[in-house]
Amino acid sequence: MKRFLAFVRKEFYHILRDHRTLLILVGMPVVQILLFGYAITNEISNAPIAILDHSNDEITALIKKKILTSDYFVLSSNLSAENEIEDIFKDGITKMAVVFEPNFSETLEKTNNAQIQFIADASDPNTANTLVNYAQAIVADFMSRRVNGGMPYMIEIRSRMVYNPELKGVYYFVPGTIVILLMLVSAMMTSISIAREKEIGTMEVLLASPMNPSGIILAKVIPYLLLSFVVSGIILTLGKFVFGVPIIGSLPLLLGVTILFIILALTLGILISTVVDTQQAALLISLMGLMLPTILLSGFIFPVENMPRILQVLANLVPARWFIIVLKAIMLKGASIGIIWKEIVILCLFIMVFTGASIKKFKVRLE
Asked: Are residues 257 and 293 in the same domain?
């Protein structure tokens, strides 16, 4: 029994001295429970909305105050004309517009009936539907309180979903699927491929060849670049012709940004391969450092705006978040490069950072 306990104690010592194993055993569950606990939520708060008030009277002021003093909405802009609504949706920030008809109070007094329209950005159908339901409940509560106060009237609520009027979930998941698969093919497979060369000892042979290191790395990643581009083309084709997902914007712009993201993912895969020596380590870092944040923090499944502030900051460091914004803007909203140039610049900055870090970490001689 003493011998057995000695072996158990020895194993504990090994685990405590191996910081990588300890990180996996303790760190991974902590990170996962925090991410899943805070990121996975259907609750929406502080959603940016725009207001177009054609009336600007006492009743509309009370309704606007009730909407904006709730925890669900914050004012992003006051509009002066209906043609501004499409422009504010294309920036991807404003989620809903509230439109009051002209002479709202006067119509209400004369006919006991007036109209409010909620126009939601349905490129994210779940969020759009939830926001409209929240707003309808707030207005219904306002009406019930006014009725109890002795003013029986009816406010007619009309809702309209733009970019995805049928609230099809596939409009939402096709861009996210492209991002996930490109990360899988480009970043993960590239990191594993280069790490495999190190693990089996063939990297020494490659480095001893007449080709310089940059040429070797380029030769390794070109097949994954082409494969990733083909995969994205297949998804776009299936999405359009099988599921009816529109591509309203410029197809060359969409393909160009897709190639840009593929290059970003490849540089990220190369960076991972420079800091690991085994396929297992490359796989672990890719899964924990790439796939999990891409799924949870990119806005693919859970809106970033609903997360705590610290996770929103971390989400800004996830390249997939900016690519999903660009994909939705081009495919569903017909956005031009003048609208998405900020996101494109951010993707280019990521490429520069990852490339610079890879060059710094790359070792011409194996240890």
From this structure: yes
